[in-house]
Amino acid sequence: MVSARAYSRRSSEPSIKGRLIFVGGLLGLGMLAIVARLFQLQVLEYDVYKVLAEGQHSSDSTLVPKRGSILLRDRFDGTLHPVAKDREVWQVFAIPRDIKADLASTTQMVADFTNQPYDELYKILSVTTGTYKIVAKDVPMDQAQALQAKRLPGIGVTKGPSRFYPEQGLGGQIFGFVSFNDKNVREGRYGIESSMNEDLAGKYGSIKLETDAAGRPLSIGTTQLEQKKDGSDIVLTIDRTIQYEACRRIALAVQEFQADGGTVIVLDPQTGAIWAMCSAPDYDPANYGKIDSVSVLNNPSTLDEFEPGSIFKPLTIAAGLDAELINPRTTYEDKGEEKIDDFTIRNSDHLAHGVQTMTDVLRKSLNTGTIFVQRLLGKERFNDYVKKFGLGVKTGIELSPEGDGNISPLEKKGQIYAATGSYGQGITATPLQMAAAFQALANGGTLMRPHIVREIIAPDGTRTVTVPSEIRQVVSARAARLVSGMMVTVVEEGHGKRAAVPGYYVAGKTGTAQIANPNGPGYLPDATIGSFAGYAPSDDPKFVMLVKIDRPRTVQYAEASAAPVWGDLAAFLLRYLQVKPERPITEKPAPPLPVAPAASTTAPSATGTKP
To answer: How far is CA 117 from CA 46, 135, 170, 218, in A?
Structure first.
């Protein structure tokens, strides 16, 4: 007979085993839940928490991408030098709706620690409709940390991106700057920062977490993640050394000639790549808020439209050569003036030179000579050549805004407009358009599209390289070669002597253009624009360059303003590009004092006013 104690012991064994199995099952389920949660966190939602760990830079879960850099590549060793890049700086942000203390005292404390104007801060902090606002950037670390120690509700300190421009004096008008728009998003303004903003800025992302009443993320809540995409780096065609020299020299020239401004453009004749583009006055992108006038933000190289004057004459001569209506020795009789419609057009020196060749037309800069060629071409064909040279339309360079220029007067009835247009009066072009036209002459008559972006480097390292783009054959290689030789005489014997470089043959042309009256018909008295456009060496050009001096006051003519600046920079370029001299180097002779302008000062304007 089994005892009661033994029976009790037997009957309790299944109960204990059941409990153990139950507890073990619970533990197993718990472990399974933990493993599942870890799998969710570490695998399924890895990207979410990775993003959170990197920092969000805002309270509304906006994921800020890293903005790409703007870079210049060294010509000789290929190294990249940043001219615009992001760096981490201390920032103070505010969430106005969370400010609990007295607004005035909070504003005053923030102003004290950030050196920001009290009135401006108060306006920002008093608006409670937004969720997140940066109120101060580039705050010194000690001040930022001291403010953070105050633990002011609604006020926070973080590290955020700020645009840094390490190179000074390299042309702010090319680079532009970065500022916050009305949605508190960083955005490029002007220059490459603006025109290439989509590539540089990348794409903002976002993260949405389901939270409890206290604003804490729920461990079992849903998460929506839209990944950010960092911006691409932009490598420019600008040569860092050439750009520096161009900017330095044009600034000195504007100062020396007491001019309103000046522009220089240097480009590759074979590809259209811009090696230098600089104007004075300019501005520092790192301190764009300190500019005196917003007009300085625009790039004169691409936006300013001016009557080119006599630097246009080689284009007319090239058109005549291409049409086989003239050759360098073709003659005409220069009577010193031409009567067209109701107007009288004279040479700039007011002289009649008698029988002259087409080479003399460029060497002496005779207005009557280009009118002779234009008449041979006829209005329509002349207009067609002007368009083929790229005038009247944007070049398509990766910079904005860009001007079209205005050649519409050539469409008007009457002969006067084409006649004055033949020597660059009554029509307008941008400096870049004129530099590109000379690039075509230097490149065997082939016009290339100017470009300033060499390549785009994506965050994953993928490179998109700009392929040089041929626009059209403007004139024949023969015509381009002939007009180049004719322009050499301008530098050797004519008004361009001060652009000469000892040891080399330089092809170029001066231009002294009148400035149209912005308030009515006619031109401003005693106000001119001096320019020189050309290339060297003339037989195998290594660069094309245009120099423009706006309204110089210490000299009148381009041969005394733009030409010497061009020659000085050209001498540097030939040395820098290691171009061997073509002939014995002799001392550069002192040029004679200018006796005549290189462009018309007496011809009527396109509006029909008399000289």
So the answer is: 43, 10, 31, 40
